[in-house]
Amino acid sequence: MIKEVIVVEGKNDIAAVRRAVDAECLATGGFGLSPYTLEQIKHAYEKRGIIILTDPDSAGERIRRYLSKRFPDAKHAFIPKEDASDEREVGIEVASAPVIRSALETLRSEELQIEPRFIWADMTRAGLHGGADSAARRAKLGRILGVGYANAKTFFRRLNTYGVTREEFNAAQEKL
């Protein structure tokens, strides 16, 4: 049983998570979170802690950012887009149980960084922006580091806010 409450976007996501692990889940119902839903999430956050597991798309990222601001000590789990999509949709509900378990084993927490560990030149040197294969490189590196796929700007922010160390980054690059 997972101690924290897992916050997902919808009922189908809850079903997918429950097929993978024994955990309590709450659904945001999309980006229009009701005051009642926010109160439920706040209660879970204060009593047990929460894990934010949103879809690997732009709507999921907006929900994650919104919840992160309200609940700064929340943990984050990421599922790579290619592992959470089929020919019709992208979402946690189409991810397999092993993929969901893997995401929940590599949790990240946001950290306040006075001095960022990474600078934009690190993104350039690693080929993570501006190149023909940059998106694919970010997807692979995001999977290895457990920070998910993101565009270059968001990926850079995740490197600096989710506690990725220089050693982890270098080791992940070597795996590419």
TrEMBL record:
<keyword id="KW-0378">Hydrolase</keyword>
<keyword id="KW-0694">RNA-binding</keyword>
<dbReference type="GO" id="GO:0019843">
    <property type="term" value="F:rRNA binding"/>
</dbReference>
<keyword id="KW-0479">Metal-binding</keyword>
<comment type="function">
    <text>Required for correct processing of both the 5' and 3' ends of 5S rRNA precursor. Cleaves both sides of a double-stranded region yielding mature 5S rRNA in one step.</text>
</comment>
<feature type="domain" description="Toprim">
    <location>
        <begin position="3"/>
        <end position="86"/>
    </location>
</feature>
<keyword id="KW-0963">Cytoplasm</keyword>
<dbReference type="InterPro" id="IPR004466">
    <property type="entry name" value="RNase_M5"/>
</dbReference>
<dbReference type="GO" id="GO:0046872">
    <property type="term" value="F:metal ion binding"/>
</dbReference>
<dbReference type="Pfam" id="PF13331">
    <property type="entry name" value="DUF4093"/>
</dbReference>
<dbReference type="InterPro" id="IPR006171">
    <property type="entry name" value="TOPRIM_dom"/>
</dbReference>
<dbReference type="GO" id="GO:0016853">
    <property type="term" value="F:isomerase activity"/>
</dbReference>
<protein>
    <recommendedName>
        <fullName>Ribonuclease M5</fullName>
        <ecNumber>3.1.26.8</ecNumber>
    </recommendedName>
</protein>
<keyword id="KW-0698">rRNA processing</keyword>
<dbReference type="InterPro" id="IPR034141">
    <property type="entry name" value="TOPRIM_RNase_M5-like"/>
</dbReference>
<keyword id="KW-0413">Isomerase</keyword>
<dbReference type="GO" id="GO:0043822">
    <property type="term" value="F:ribonuclease M5 activity"/>
</dbReference>
<keyword id="KW-0460">Magnesium</keyword>
<dbReference type="GO" id="GO:0006364">
    <property type="term" value="P:rRNA processing"/>
</dbReference>
<keyword id="KW-0699">rRNA-binding</keyword>
<keyword id="KW-0690">Ribosome biogenesis</keyword>
<dbReference type="InterPro" id="IPR025156">
    <property type="entry name" value="RNase_M5_C"/>
</dbReference>
<keyword id="KW-0540">Nuclease</keyword>
<dbReference type="GO" id="GO:0005737">
    <property type="term" value="C:cytoplasm"/>
</dbReference>
<comment type="similarity">
    <text>Belongs to the ribonuclease M5 family.</text>
</comment>
<dbReference type="Pfam" id="PF01751">
    <property type="entry name" value="Toprim"/>
</dbReference>
<keyword id="KW-0255">Endonuclease</keyword>
